[in-house]
Amino acid sequence: MDCYTANWNPLGDSAFYRKYELYSMDWDLKEELRDCLVAAAPYGGPIALLRNPWRKEKAASVRPVLEIYSASGLPLASLLWKSGPVVSLGWSAEEELLCVQEDGVVLVYGLHGDFRRHFSMGNEVLQNRVLDARIFHTEFGSGVAILTGAHRFTLSANVGDLKLRRMPEVPGLQSAPSCWTALCQDRVAHILLAVGPDLYLLDHAACSAVTPPGLAPGVSSFLQMAVSFTYRHLALFTDTGYIWMGTASLKEKLCEFNCNIRAPPKQMVWCSRPRSKERAVVVAWERRLMVVGDAPESIQFVLDEDSYLVPELDGVRIFSRSTHEFLHEVPVASEEIFKIASMAPGALLLEAQKEYEKESQKADEYLREIQELGQLTQAVQQCIEAAGHEHRPDMQKSLLRAASFGKCFLDRFPPDSFVRMCQDLRVLNAIRDYHIGIPLTYSQYKQLTIQVLLDRLVLRRLYPLAIQICEYLRLPEVQGVSRILAHWACYKVQQKDVSDEDVARAINQKLGDTPGVSYSDIAARAYGCGRTELAIKLLEYEPRSGEQVPLLLKMKRSKLALSKAIESGDTDLVFTVLLHLKNELNRGDFFMTLRNQPMALSLYRQFCKHQELETLKDLYNQDDNHQELGSFHVRASYAAEERIEGRVAALQTAADAFYKAKNEFAAKATEDQMRLLRLQRRLEDELGGRFVDLSLHDTVTTLVLGGHSKRAEQLARDFRIPDKRLWWLKLTALADLEDWEELEKFSKSKKSPIGYLPFVEICMKQHNKYEAKKYASRVGPEQKVKALLLVGCVS
Amino acid sequence: MAFPHRPDAPELPDFSMLKRLARDQLIYLLEQLPGKKDLFIEADLMSPLDRIANVSILKQHEVDKLYKVENKPALSSNEQLCFLVRPRIKNMRYVASLVNADKLAGRTRKYKVIFSPQKFHACEMVLEEEGVFGDVSCDEWAFSLLPLDVDLLSMELPEFFRDYFLEGDQRWINTVAQALHLLSTLYGPFPNCYGIGRCSKMSYELWRKLEEEEDGETKGRRPEIGHIFLLDRDVDFVTALCSQVVYEGLVDDTFRIKCGSVDFGPEVTSSDRSLKVLLNAEDKVFSEIRNEHFSNVFGFLSQKARNLQAQYDRRRGMDIKQMKNFVSQELKGLKQEHRLLSVHIGACESIMKKKTKQDFQELIKTEHALLEGFNIRESTSYIEEHIDRQVSPIESLRLMCLLSITENGLIPKDYRSLKTQYLQSYGPEHLLTFSNLRRAGLLTEQAPGDTLTAVESKVSKLVTDKAAGKITDAFSSLAKKSNFRALSKKLNLIPRVDGEYDLKVPRDMAYVFSGAYVPLSCRLIEQELTRRDSLAAATFPSSAGQSLRLEPPARASQVLERRSWQGLDEVVRLLNCGELAFTDMTKEDKASSESLRLILVVFLGGCTFSEISALRFLGREKGYRFIFLTTAVTNSARLMEAMSEVKA
């Protein structure tokens, strides 16, 4: 333990920097890093190497290889590069690899070397070729900035939602800038570039010359510039070996340093953390690494091998052929506890716990000392916090043990910070494992959030680990386990070597009916991979039939879709499928399909009734539904046709249909109607007035009322109007006419089939008591009383 | 005379929340189209809308002018047009023609169509076909439940009946399910569900699906309403076809109650203006007579008038102070009552004039004969005469249907002759009406040699066949047999009359039909409730009896499991519906005994005021409270009109 601070290097008075090994790499690189295009994603992300770049004029016949490794050097993908020359590589925030080609086309690959998509940076870029490119991260996502052969810049702030912006021209720019970078301020992306002794800031509207405040004189060119992880700070390296550090807005200078090395550095990156005491820049040359800050002295390391720096939120990762290290400023809590001769409460508590384990009474002394100062709570908090910043599990444990020991002497110490730290460290240690290879620090982990971390695990296809983490942290199923299972299932369906049955069964076994898992989404993915049969099998597991339909339609399983839609009970869905089917199938097949689905059929019929009458007719025809066909024509006879001839023709068709339907009654009735129509027409011609469209009864009544008794009789005979009806009819009509004489004659024409009470009633209705009395006497005995009452002869 | 409820009858839930909900949603939709706009309202939606939001509320939300959707070009000059319509294709064509006319005139306006209660894909399709889909924005106003009264919710969808029971169109079922879902979110889950009929079953299943998709929220809630009964209208056509003689039903039959209010014409108001009267529990006079047999109403009203007079008379002999009190406090109430009284007396007179004539007595007599099943020949000739005299096309049709259903179809000779007579009287287009009625099973022909058992075996075979589609097929091909006679015997629908039935002090629900017939739909509900109550009494004996006879637990649980409409097996078979009885949805123990006496009855395809009165009577007798949810309030005339084909 004495040597715990051995790797601590002081910078100035206040800060220490330490460098420790994350992994020893065994990635068995065949070439030097310097011969490759290198891109490493932040937050312990993967490393991409593209060997054999084109700028080395090597044998063009050899195709370069694009390799992707985890941060621990495990190979994730390797593929032969078959496209054009690549200028720059970079990782997007979603851990997709962006490869900027010379012609301005950006190819996007997944973590496992699977090609995702490509996009172009525009015609101007295509014409002038790409000279240099940077991939940068903004609040919106990942951006690409390109310097073209014409020394113009084009950028897109978010490749997910590609909007190209061509930056204004820099006046008098003849050659490529000596260095440049993309800046992101106030949610807008800028370009900062250095041309000779001048600095220019390009925004989308203008190009303005800027000067950093307090820049030492004598600078004739800037060799390197670096923007901090959060875009807040800027460092400039000049040809005089002078380093200027200040805010990215170029309003304030933080410090400066003269390293007296005039050779251009290979890389320069910021090494700071949120709320850092010291702001330092790490500069790397071929064999030398220098940490420079606001101090007269710098920290120097020797680089044994070709190395590459990856800026992180709270430090710098440095990897080479054999190792992967992390360089950062020692966090406050750790510093307080471990600084030599520290009397900080945390340090005392750690000491006390060690003594306690040795069963020494010194433990009590230390503890007393802390308690006297009333700093025990602080001590526990310090230990918990420091544990988070430790990389080695044994150190984490001893600090946590100290915290737990201290906690015992506190009355009311809320346990959640301790518990949460234990959980977080467990997760962190799991993912830092060599096989997983995501060396996140505690601060990075907190910044990234557990959800994103889970996404990244899913992206690496580490489903079991992700699920274990979810279960361990007791995340709600919908966000946690179900989501991961769904991703797993989507991956599973892409395994072409496994049979459809096996995949479907495996997925169903794992997923069961976990809430929040949509089988239709998985099926859609299966269909996307060209596995229609599998997709159908998966859809079988989807409990909501409504969800199955859209995909089934897409897969052209319309008939299946139809029955599923019907099952769902959602008529709108059924209708959607119907319209689909209508366009997809020929008419005959469409009708046949409908025929087997009565619910859909009636739905479609309803629609046709209002919108497509002809189709309705075809439908009935197809079904040989002569009854409905007949009804259809009857309706047409009075709704669609104006002329009598047309109407009669429609009725004739209807009658034929009714005969076919063996509905003799309807057929006869229709034929009667045809006869009646013709007759009414003739009556209109001969007698004038309106007859057409009257019912038979009304036609006869009209005739009687018009005094055409003969005609009326004739009609009644022709249409075989029953006697009773005729009597009622004549009775009413004659009474209306008040033709009492005729009525009497009529009543005597023969014995009334309706009795004589109606005669009495109708006369009384017309208030003709005199006539009524005539008939009252003829009323049959059982109704006589009634009749007499009506007439008013109570006696 | 108005019966008080038993003291243990539960309180009704407050349904005014539904109105507020609908109003807020409508306002939200109107605000989606900021600025002045003209509102085009479909005629069918006007009255319901009036119950939700009056003109001043609409004006507050920048509705400028109101128009009725009708087949005329719109004269609106507003830049924004809003259409409030039912999802019907003809409305879409109207909107499209308006938009297209504007386009021709080179005019651009904003159009918004609000569908109530929901939009259908077919409507959007039509807009698309007419080429205006892009110009119109569509929205839904999920207003499906209108509280017409404290215990009556209506969906105001009269077309439900024709669409489902005639055309086999199931699109409204989703709307029903949505409405039930809304009720269960607002008033807690329903512990017990029962249903008869295919439509009930489908609605129930869709509703369950909705509940499952949106799990969580209602689970912990205590149920407010203990039972829900779903009934298809085709289970009991008979009740709906009978002439109504309870006051409210009679008013509906005579004047047509529309959306809870009625227009009394000059013959009632005895002035030259007609008067619109809201009929609900707030009308003190009406609420006392609505459920009464008509023969009692007049006596009651005259008694009431005398009381009123007595109250007026009190002012004589008052001193100044008392008089002041009287004027400021009581007079207004008395005046109000006076006004209502005169309206109802006017209505009564008008009804009496129409109904107490000879023919009405004859009509009722015939109806009763049909229900009881005697003198069929006589009834048939009465109907024939009815047709021959062209009394009324709807009435004639109604009697024919009643004859057909009670007699399990007409004998072929009558079937032909009645139809022929009808066509001669009322016009040949009714050939289509008959075809509709046959399809709906309302007017059928006894197949020669088709004995009851043969039909039954046929039906039961179809019922066991799980393929739902087949049943629909059967539905249209094999017209449903009603077995009314057997049902009536089994369920004792025709009360035995010993002496005169005292309509003033009714004994059972039959009073709504002058003591001649207990409505089948209501009897089914009564049977189930009685069965449940006796079961509950057996399973949970009163504390006194507990020590004496402890049921063995095994048996108790066995009893509890039997929760469907069992014991009605025979009835179910006769009803030919196949589908009924759903198991309980949630455990009953959460439901308070209070809520178990609150019962929601859902009529799919409409219910009549007589049925409502009958169940209200049952509630008063047994200490239940019934809540009614119907797709629309209906009566025999509305049913017949829905089936009729009339020349356009």
Which features characterize this protein?
heterodimer, A: 795 residues, Methylamine Dehydrogenase, Chain H, five-stranded antiparallel beta sheet, four-stranded antiparallel beta sheet, 44% helix, B: alpha/beta, six-stranded mixed beta sheet, five-stranded parallel beta sheet, 52% helix, 11% strand, membrane (chain A), protein transport (chain A), lysosome (chain A), Vps16_C (chain A), actin binding (chain A)
Describe the structure.
The complex is a heterodimer of chains A (795) and B (648). Chain A is built from 29 helices and 29 strands. In chain A, β9 and β10 (115-120) form a beta hairpin. The longest helix of chain A has 24 residues, at 664-687. The N and C termini of chain A lie far apart (136 Å). The mean pLDDT of chain A is 85. By secondary structure, chain B is α/β, with parallel strands linked by helices. In chain B, β4 (110-115), α5 (121-129) and β5 (136-140) form a beta-alpha-beta unit. The longest helix of chain B has 36 residues, at 320-355. Mean pLDDT of chain B is 81; it is low at 450-479 and 541-565. Chains A and B meet through α16, α18, α20, α22 and α25 of A and α5, α7, α8, α16 and α18 of B.
